Amino acid sequence: MSDTPTLLTARTEPDQLQVDAWSNEPLLVSLEMGGSNWPSSCRSGHCRTCLGQLQSGKVRYDETFTGLSPEELALGYVLPCVAYPCTDVVVQQGL
Ligand code: FES
What we know:
The chain is an alpha+beta fold. The chain is 13% helix and 32% strand. It contains two helices and seven strands. It starts with 6 loop residues before the first strand and ends with a strand. The mean pLDDT is 94. The site of FE2/S2 (inorganic) cluster (FES) has 13 residues, from loops.
C-alpha cells in the first residue's frame, strides 16, 4: 500500500452527513472533523461505543483490538476509532 494519504469520502447513516476522510486517519477522526457527533469513549477499539456497520466501502485496521469478533467483522461491523478507510465508505450508526 502507498504511504501517500488518499482523500476519500465518508457518509453516515441515517443522518446522511458526508465528510472528507483521509486514508491515514481513523474514520472517527474524519467524522468528527466533518462535524459528526459520532459516539466514542475508549478510542482504542475495545469499548464498542463507536460501533457501526459498513453499508459500502472497505476499511483496514492497523492495531490489535478486541471490540469485534471475526464474525462481526465479516458482517461489516466497524469500530471507526481504529478503522482506516481504504475506499469511500458509507457507515450506519448503531445497530
Ligand atoms: S470508542 Fe471504544 S471501541 Fe471505538
